[in-house]
Write a structure and sequence with these properties.
This protein is an alpha/beta fold. The chain has a single domain (about 1-255), classed as 3-Layer(aba) Sandwich (UDP-N-acetylmuramoyl-L-alanine:D-glutamate ligase). The protein is built from nine helices and nine strands. The chain has helices at about 15-25, 50-65, 80-90, 120-125, 135-145, 150-165, 205-220, 225-240, 250-255, and strands spanning about 1-5, 30-40, 40-50, 70, 100, 130-135, 170, 180-185, 190-195. The chain has a six-stranded mixed sheet. Strands 7-8-9 form a three-stranded antiparallel sheet, with helices on both faces. A hairpin with a 2-residue loop joins strand 2 and strand 3 (about 40-50). Helix 1 crosses helix 7 (about 205-220) and helix 7 packs antiparallel against helix 8. The radius of gyration is 17 Å and the shape is globular. The model has no long low-confidence stretch (mean pLDDT about 95). The structure holds 3-hydroxy-5-(hydroxymethyl)-2-methylisonicotinaldehyde (PXL).
Length: about 260
């Protein structure tokens, strides 16, 4: 199940999540939290879904399907975060699905996507419930309260956040724009690094959504955390490599191979 916003350009949000779930042959349920009118680089408007309707989507999904994994994306407000936590906490602890929290705060365009009070709700209720939290550099910076600018900063922040919330953190280093894109998992035991070539692409909108959805799909299929992240990292790297560049459409002859 993805609990996230709708991105009208369909590169991020629930659209990205569902496409990713299909790729891994898992059935995706959706609980839509808000509707974002946007294209990469420009957020035009956001409308939140009524909290009661968000709650009903989650509740019906849990009542009807054997949900193995949940990922959260853009949750928009403290009220929606509280509803998500209520519905997860209502389930008996032993039968709770794996929970991947992608703490979406800012669009790649720089637009704020989350109401300021919502960060507190994340910290107090949602993060402690997670099986994995997947902040990028800016989100890890917002959670630690300082600007992170290097791999050393990222490692320090990841260790600190995992200890503070008592759950595994995968801190993603793609925004450092180094030669390699390094993500570091802080869970039980020594930190583990997941590395791939850094690919310079015009548009990486939705990368975080796709990555966390791939991790959730792998967890739903029964993989352990480290294998799930390894598979998802391969998938997201390929997705970035093959991403659509609509400014330079491929010639029809190049499309024939499909
Ligand atoms: O990529 C972050 C993100 C997540 N979810 C929704 C979005 C965006 C980015 O714009 O629109 C719905």
């Amino acid at each position: 199940m993805t609990i996230a916003g709708s991105d009208s350009s369909a590169g991020a949000g629930i659209q990205a999540d569902l496409k990713t779930f299909s790729h891994f042959h898992v059935h995706g349920l959706t609980a839509v939290t808000c509707i974002v009118a946007e294209v990469p680089g420009r957020v035009q408007s956001i409308q939140a879904i009524d909290v009661g309707v968000v709650r009903d989507q989650i509740k019906l999904g849990f009542e009807t399907y054997p949900v193995r994994a949940v990922k959260t994306g853009l949750l928009y407000s403290a009220g929606i975060i509280a509803a998500v936590c209520d519905e997860l906490e209502r389930l008996p602890r032993a039968s709770r699905p794996a929970l991947v929290v992608d703490p979406v705060m800012i669009a790649s365009s720089g637009d704020a996507l989350l109401q300021p009070l919502a960060v507190k709700a994340y910290e107090e209720r949602l993060l402690p419930l997670a099986s994995l939290v997947t902040p990028n550099l800016d989100e890890a910076g917002a959670l630690t309260g300082r600007k992170l600018a290097s791999l050393a900063d990222l490692r320090a922040a990841g260790g600190e956040l995992a200890a503070r919330f008592g759950v595994p953190f995968l801190v993603k280093g793609g925004h450092l724009r180094g030669k390699t894109a390094v993500d570091v998992l802080f869970g039980s035991g020594e930190p583990t690094e997941f590395t791939a070539p850094f690919l310079q692409r015009a548009c990486t909108h939705g990368t975080g959504c796709t990555y966390s959805a791939a991790i959730a799909a792998q967890l739903a299929l029964g993989q352990d955390l480290s294998s799930a992240i390894g598979e998802a990292k391969l998938f997201i790297t390929r997705a970035i490599r093959e991403s659509l560049n609509w400014l330079q459409p491929r010639p029809v002859s190049a499309l024939k191979q499909w």
